[in-house]
Amino acid sequence: MTEIPIRICVNGEWRELTVKPYERLADSLRERLGLTGTKIGCGEGECGACTITMEGKAVLSCLTLAVQANGRQVRTIEGLGRGEALHPIQEAFVEEGATQCGFCAPGMIMAAEAMLKQDPNPSEDKVRKSLANNLCRCTGYDKPVKAILKAARTMREGNHE
Questions:
Q1: Reading across the β-sheet that carries 13-19, which strands appear in turn?
Q2: Could you report the per-residue pLDDT of 65-86, keeping only the tens digit for each?
């Protein structure tokens, strides 16, 4: 089958790729660009491990075709921090012990980043709802929720970037 040329801004850098028409964005990010922070858990949009942001909104990259990202801004966990400096959400996840095995953490962090752009002062209930699409078998969700609320405070206070 013929491949399709696309152009995507990934983590602030425009990239040109040639992809199969049926290729998932998650696979393009991982295999073509080497951005393995985006995890593929279920491959069916049930676990949230593949969550990235596209145009600032949380997207399940295992359900998104690479061609759907053509001409768009995509951010993965690798593009969240600045060089060696962690983003406040990443920092809070580490400080609160919210990473556990680490498999779901990138997806949770990206979902949190999209939510905090929309609501910089969320309630605990809103944070829990924003993580509803992210399956975690290690943390029980309390630590990630606490970390996201902590990061929200830090970001509101301007103690980052």
A1: 13-19, 4-10, 73-75, 51-54, 57-60
A2: 999 999 999 999 999 988 889 9
